[in-house]
């Protein structure tokens, strides 16, 4: 049985660490997983064949979780291949995208019709169990599977608000070379700033994503020590509707009308990291096809 799954990267509007509520939006960088599932007569933990260069605790646990959920009645082994174009540990939700792609591939191999929120919830559980995310990052996972902005309560695993993205908007990314440390290491520092985080959450829940993004980045920059305030002012003059640290950084994302993106890219540091122009995802579907 064969399945293919795909999920996208995302950028942060509101970081969930201070309050447990997060907001994110998917962008056009993708992780793709392909899985071959083989029934076995042996009653044992599944044998997982995963290339060593992509075999991480997160990938392994996502594959095991998918088999346990979608092949519960059929003991099975699995072979996985995985490709991701998302920079790792830069705040672009690479872990959520990979977990969702793997889970989606297993669901498709089982011919299971699965809603994005179900995949996102399992991904969130896997992210917490493997220590990748302190909150599970439900918003990041769901943003990688659904179009538009999404606000979620990551503790309760519920959706609080969804919203469309203007088709004339794109994102410009500045992606420095140095990765961030895992979110559980920063949990206490962010929880201590919950009152500030709540103001960003309130704006997101009202649909004022631009205000939410600015309030969030001021908090994240303060906790993490990123010196982006002057650069963000420069981006605003170039036409950015909003800009801010994505996740725990170090990526800085700017949202702007499509005709202003090139000027914004030119304003980003040219020799300190990648500069990327990416569209927002206007449609996501679990892949179809594959099967027996």
Summarize this structure briefly.
With 292 residues, the protein is an alpha+beta fold.
The SSE string, one letter per element, is EEEHEHHHEEEHHHHEEHE
Mean pLDDT: 92
The rounded distance between the terminal residues' Cα atoms is 4 Å
- Under the CATH scheme, the architecture of the largest domain is 2-Layer Sandwich
Domain count, please report it. 2
Beta-strand content bin: 25-35%
Query: What does the main sheet amount to?
Result: 6 strands, mixed
Question: Could you name the key traits of this structure?
Answer:
alpha+beta; Ribosomal Protein S5, domain 2; 2 domains; four-stranded antiparallel β-sheet; disordered C terminus; single chain; globular; 292 residues
Q: Can you put this structure into words, describing what you see?
A:
By secondary structure, this protein is of the alpha+beta class. The chain has 2 domains: 2-163, Ribosomal Protein S5, domain 2, CATH 3.30.230.10; 169-279, Alpha-Beta Plaits (2-Layer Sandwich), CATH 3.30.70. It has 9 helices and 10 strands. Strands 1, 2, 3, 4, 5 and 6 form a 6-stranded mixed β-sheet that branches. Strands 8-9-7-10 form a 4-stranded antiparallel β-sheet. α1 (57-70) links the parallel β3 and β4 (76-84). α6 runs antiparallel to α7. It is globular and about 65 Å long. Residues 285-292 have low confidence and may be disordered.
